[in-house]
Amino acid sequence: MSEENPYPNASRRLENIFGHLIEHKEWRTLSPSQTLAVRTNREIKWNGHGYKDTFFKFDDRGTASLLGNRFGHFSSKEYHELRPWLEQTLRINLKTVCPAQKSMSEIHSPEVNHGFYDAIRPKGVIISFSEQDRLSRGHGNSTMDIYNLRYGNFNRLPDAVIWPESHEHVEIIVRAAQKFNVGCIPYGGGSNYVNALDCPIEEEKRMIVSLDMRQMNRILSLNNENMIVVVEAGAIAKDLEMELRKLGLSLGWDADSFEFSTVGGLAALRSSGDFENSIINMKIVTPTGTIQKSGSNTLPPFFSGPDITNLLFGSEGTLGVITELTFKLHYLTPFRHYVSIYFPTFHKGLLFLREIVQRKVINNLSDARLVDETGLQLVQAFNTITPTITTVFSEVIRKYYWKKFKNLKFGKMCLAAILIDGYDTSKMVNDEKRILKTGETFGGVDAGYDLGERMFFMSKGLPYLRDFLLDYYAISDYLDTSTSWSNIEDLVVKVRETIVTTCRAQSVRPRPFVAVRVDHIYETGASLTFTYGFNCRNLADPLGTLRRVEQDALVEILRSNGSISHHTTGIGKRKKECFIESLSEVGENCNALLPHGQIGDSTIYSSDSYHHSVGSSSQAFCISGDNAVVPCGQESGNGGGADSSSSRGKSHDFQSGEGTSRITFSGYQFVAGQERIENTGIRRNENESKDDENNISNVQTKKILKDCLQSWGHRYPGGKENYPKTPC
Fold first, then answer.
1. Where is the FAD-binding PCMH-type domain (predicted)?
2. pTM score of the predicted model
């Protein structure tokens, strides 16, 4: 009999480190029960976006180039048209440089809660109080974050960084945080763009810890027959995708921040379009227990009652810490092709996109994009072709032909790009022909493969350009939204006018650059990204001006029937004021899930919203059955019990103090207290009839669910003005 390992946590860390240093030859024969770490090897800038070896630079001749080798033939190439375009549009001057600071000058001392520290230290959890660790987890990737890193400071950073290595570690940390009143902010890949990682400043005296989830990066199981993979939430999405591709499999989705984001972060952000449709199951640790679907990792979708995981998508870390996800897999499509088409106007391009998505012109459409006339200028500035007499002459002839015979006028024409993935190249050729034929009906002209590929690359290249322009007193940002097809053009006009008007009022000179890009298309509408920038050399407060432009644009987006965000950014602290305005009272009651504000609750919901006090008298619930819904039990901590079951449900126990409360609800289990409750099968109260069980109507179900959400703790009487503030 083998002797038990006396140092399991140390062994686990060594296995992870060893996995990062070698290639995993065993991936091709991965067993469904095998546990392997997804490799993470990131050399990231401390004060900018992306990799240390990838950045823009002007050479001695003033020609811009993107150094490094991360982006294929777009890397280590000269962009001859980029500098002239920047000088004309943003009035940059190569002789006027604003270099970034070498390091952050002032970092406050950490606030240490010794009770919390002593509670987690014996459990083998890694914790750090170093300034560099705290700084790197105390911000995201927004323009405001990068500007502060390069030229300013942060008033508050996490007091410590913790690296949980298992679901059990997260449970220990969150339980200790609740007991000792410590705030937790989950950290994934650090690519957040809406200041969700910012620590609250005013009225927050508690210790705040950052939970860096990236040590939880293992594939727990993979089933080729059922086409599912179970993975820990800290796995970097790109690394996971690369390992799956070795097996001929794929996650089937992509995102602009794919190479830096964790899968847990993408789920919390509700990222990558219809990302949630690829998730079968997820496990999340809350201050009062763990939520997880029971026994659904190998089951097809079930439709018994509401789906509580919809509450978790887009929660951005406010409802708990995601520790594990189960994804649907797809067979890897080996071939990829880009198609691009010029259109006379943005209106014609929109008609084309709507046509191909509503009439399903092709079945294997992977992605589609459209840039307006201003965005097209930026795309053309990323041209890597070295200008010669021949290329310049050919371009002049081409422009004359388009203007004379195709009604394409520079300054008004736009560009659409289509991405096609497939298994059969001959079928993909036919799909391209159908797309081009559809484009011709709207005045489109084939623009070739290269421009289409360039458009999709720019989503990854623009953050590097943003950082580069800060050195030359040019600041830029973007906003994403979505709206219906019939509303797109009206929204675009109004938001663009708002950005220009606000910049003029803030003494921005010259006129700001504003471009619009359609990112994702649906049968009912599309998502849009507004990219804007301006010269900030003569501005006293560049960040204040940028913030004012953003706020005015957000207000106009909401006024023009657009969403406050779409798939790329989320809400965060950056947009929460506008988000709160768009919520109903019932929507704000999601704060009932946040006792004591342990899990970064001010990210989305206002700090003025109410929170619940959870202690020995709190009521948690276990969601572990199939369809029956039962109220959450006693309001006081004096004890009490109930056992109510249906032919389709499980048992419901209500206890006081450190006991466990359970409720049956639509195939989920919620584990509260110290114990883990398993699926125990059907129990019946002999005095209960089947007829009584089945009389729960949809209206009653909704009411009971609302009551359950609001019964986690104690309601504060007297309205919202009496709700206590819990900023973290």
1. 154-332
2. 0.76
